[in-house]
Design brief:
Order of helices and strands: HHEEEEEHHHHHHHHHH
């Protein structure tokens, strides 16, 4: 793995760690455990890995685990993982494959007995109740994705001062034409150094960050019924309506018109199947 890829991965992992430590996730993690007795964790997704839908895997012992993607626009940035749960009560029949695997691995009788105790301690949940819990998780994934989007554009104390200042400068000048060189100059860093520093801290290129910040501001403006889409596009700094529409759809996975209609109807965005 080269240095740039390593830095990008580290930035993504730090970002997901901050998201996992947020009040929103901590509150939901506790509520999910109270409701289901299951743990819930949040893990970063590696670059180039595509997980677009809820996936439930069943192990040899009949224990199921589910991963729920958390997305920002079209990109899956993390997955929520449920702890193992059994959808049928433990029995000698469904422990048999586990016992056979242990015997084939030359495990002792004591180890097999210990495995049986652990096997019987796995939480049991009715299938329909588990499905309901996953539906709740899917809804929460949407909220968490929105929170991640906002967190992405907030300044963070652990970031280099130049990056924090650059974010503030970008937000203050979104409506104006903006170049990497101009922002680097505003924070007293060379363009080359700023480009590497900004990508390492945020996980995004300068251009992608600016476009995402503009789309985020456009979303807030589109919530106002009187705002015209063309005016919003120029007010947030896009130089053409076509560029605005392309960027909005790429980042939000829907057009500005679709976003506004969905907001009016109060319907949540759907995770891609």
């Amino acid at each position: 793995m080269n240095t740039n890829t390593t830095s990008h991965t580290s930035a993504r992992q730090r970002f997901i760690q901050n998201l996992a430590e947020s009040d929103l996730f901590q509150h939901y993690q506790k509520a999910f455990h109270t409701l289901t007795s299951l743990p819930l964790s949040l893990e970063s997704v590696g670059e180039g890995i595509h997980i677009d839908q809820i996936t439930t895997r069943t192990g040899v012992a009949g224990v199921v685990e589910t991963q729920v993607p958390v997305r920002v626009g079209k990109n899956t940035i993390a997955i929520m993982l449920t702890g193992g749960v059994r959808l049928q009560p433990a029995s000698a029949e469904n422990f048999a494959p586990v016992a056979k695997a242990l015997l084939d691995d030359d495990r002792s009788a004591a180890e097999i007995r210990s495995a049986k105790v652990q096997f019987e301690q796995v939480p049991v949940m009715r299938p329909e109740r588990y499905d309901a819990a996953l539906a709740i998780l899917q809804s929460f994934a949407l909220q968490l994705g929105d929170s991640a989007h906002r967190l992405l554009f907030a300044t963070a104390t652990h970031e280099p001062e130049a990056v924090r200042n650059a974010k503030s400068f970008i937000h203050a000048h979104l409506a104006e034409p903006m170049s990497l060189e101009a922002v680097a100059s505003a924070v007293n860093v060379s363009p080359f150094h700023f480009c590497k520093l900004f990508k390492r801290a945020t996980g995004l290129t300068f251009t992608d960050f600016v476009n995402r910040a503009r789309v985020e501001k456009a979303k807030r403006m589109l919530m106002k019924p009187a705002a015209r889409i063309t005016e919003v596009a120029y007010d947030v700094g896009f130089q053409s309506l076509s560029h605005f529409n392309r960027s909005f759809r790429r980042i939000a996975d829907e057009s500005p018109t679709e976003f506004r209609s969905r907001m009016k109807s109060g319907a949540p965005a759907l995770l891609a199947a």
